[in-house]
Amino acid sequence: MVHEKKLVDQVSGWLSLFDDGSVNRAWTGPPEVEFMVKRVEPHDEYIDGVAVYDLIIDSKSDLIVRVYEPKGILNDDESKLPIVLHFHGGGFCISQYDWAMYYHVYTRLASTIRAIVVSVKLRLAPEHRLPAAIEDAYSALLWIRSLAQVLESVKPSHELARADFNRVFLIGDSSGGNLVHAVAARAGEEDLSPLRLAGAIPVHPGFVRSVRSESEKHKEFETPFLSLDMVDKFLALALPRGSTKDHPITCPMGEAAPPLSRMKLPPYMLAVAENDLIKDTEMEFFEAMKKAGKDIEVFFNKGVGHSFYLNKLAVDFDERTAKETDLLFEAIANFINKH
Q1: 3-state percent breakdown (helix, strand, coil) of the chain, nearest 5
Q2: What predicted TM-score, i.e. pTM, was given to this entire model?
Q3: Which of 99, 101, 195, 295 could be bridged to 310 by S-S, CB 3.0 to 4.6 A?
């Protein structure tokens, strides 16, 4: 007799969990925005000034990165470009490095900031609970270090030959922002030379705690990119079994986390949105970092919500979203240029 699997739970149109442990991540939301979660194929030719290619950096674990290379990168007369290592969001449970929503953001970042952007394919929960995504993110950083070590002694023809390994930046949105901090903290415990971690940019990081913050009580702040249902269910599926949202991965400013004052961290730029459901706990992290004497600045977008800049339809057709996206990119560029 064939067992018909039963639906155990769903998460806001993004994920369905069945009683046999299988997961369906097929988009079930409005069809007009489905294009944003479609895979974009890599392309060797320069489109809008950027070529995109995928590299398998660990065949055993099938760890893949996507590299966004701005045109002219191998010209001898061009100064070396910073590397921006990106960790995607999705509550550790959904999202992919090659989705259209990220493609549009990081091709723009590569071309306008003149940076090499490397985005990591992260293992997802609940099949791979944390710290799996942290291990993938850190492995990508070590891969960049291995390139720096090789390129120190060999005249390369590698695509990253024009990379400035002295200016490597971490950036991540939502749960990817949690990975930014986790990787930066771990990197501070090791000698990564000749690579230098020059800065960290958590954008709307998923920093929360067990007790609801005031901003989490604002139902009008809920969006398809973040709702209380998503926060609660994704983290229950992603955190190590038996953990609460006070876990150091999700609450690095909490009592259960290692003291920030003891960490060796690069300069931070924390991006916060005025209408973000979790902005209060993001600001708690900012204040904790300041109290610990860390180099951190905050950039504040007004009138927009969590991960607003990933919504290409809003960026294209809503004046406020477009303006605030421009301001966010300008702030990121300024931070990278001064470090």
Answers
A1: 35, 25, 40
A2: 0.95
A3: 101
